[in-house]
Amino acid sequence: KQEVTQIPAALSVPEGENLVLNCSFTDSAIYNLQWFRQDPGKGLTSLLLIQSSQREQTSGRLNASLDKSSGRSTLYIAASQPGDSATYLCAVRKGNNDMRFGAGTRLTVKP
Amino acid sequence: NAGVTQTPKFQVLKTGQSMTLQCAQDMNHEYMSWYRQDPGMGLRLIHYSVGAGITDQGEVPNGYNVSRSTTEDFPLRLLSAAPSQTSVYFCASSTGQGWTPLHFGNGTRLTVT
């Protein structure tokens, strides 16, 4: 059974810092890995999707990497802003009935 | 473009009552799914559908029913609500198979007393 772990559970940083969020998974036979952002009381917003054949994806200040062999993905946020404060979740997809989510990292960026 | 729309946003039920959570998408997505999110846990898949007339169980299907009569709609039915079903429920959709991103609704917060 796929297990997805996100460490740390919470992170607080001053504005302007570069930061890395971690996601690890136990089964490397995946279709893709997706990073989401969740604001309080809201749904999940897709940030980046990395296919199993890819190593990284970039969107603006965000960069996500994938190392399938070690079961790890990182989400790098450059020059963090207070508006980046949210919970970040990763999810690995193996099939239509097999998408596993991590519990998330709650990020606070202080002005 | 509305994306994925869930109703209601909030609901309180008494134990034993039944209700239907609505989910609609306007992106012509074949794949739709329901998740529940509980504190400290990741989202867990309840049921999913790969097209109209086709549904299947996910990780935690007990106590829930689904149907898919149209491409756009995928309602989730609670047959006899229990306090253990207190949770936030999310509907998600995507095109095609497993290599496309999921799009989520804003969720329904359900409390069963």
Number of helices of chain A: 0
Q: How would a crystallographer describe the biggest sheet of chain B?
A: 7 strands, mixed
Task: Name the shape of chain A in a single word.
Answer: globular
Number of strands of chain B: 11
Strand % of chain B is over 45%
Shape designation of chain B: globular
Q: What amount of the residues of chain A lies in strands?
A: over 45%
Q: What kind of oligomer do you see?
A: heterodimer
Mean pLDDT of chain A: 93
- List the total number of helices of chain B: 0
**How many strands of chain A?**
11
N-to-C SSE series of chain A? EEEEEEEEEEE
Give a quick precis of the structure:
The complex is a heterodimer of chains A (111) and B (113). Chain A has 111 residues and is an all-beta fold.
Describe the structure.
The complex is a heterodimer of chains A (111) and B (113). With 111 residues, chain A is mainly β. Chain A has strands spanning 4-7, 10-14, 19-25, 32-38, 44-51, 56-59, 62-67, 72-77, 86-95, 98-101, 105-110. Chain A starts with a strand and ends with a strand. The radius of gyration of chain B is 13 Å and the shape is globular. In chain B, 0% of the residues lie in helices and 49% in strands. The relative contact order of chain B is 0.33. Chain B has strands at 4-7, 10-13, 19-25, 31-37, 44-51, 54-57, 64-66, 76-78, 87-94, 103-104, 108-112. Chain A binds chain B through residues 4, 31-32, 34, 36, 41-46, 49, 51, 89, 91, 93-104, and chain B through 4, 6, 31, 33, 35, 40-45, 48, 50, 56-58, 90, 92, 97-107.
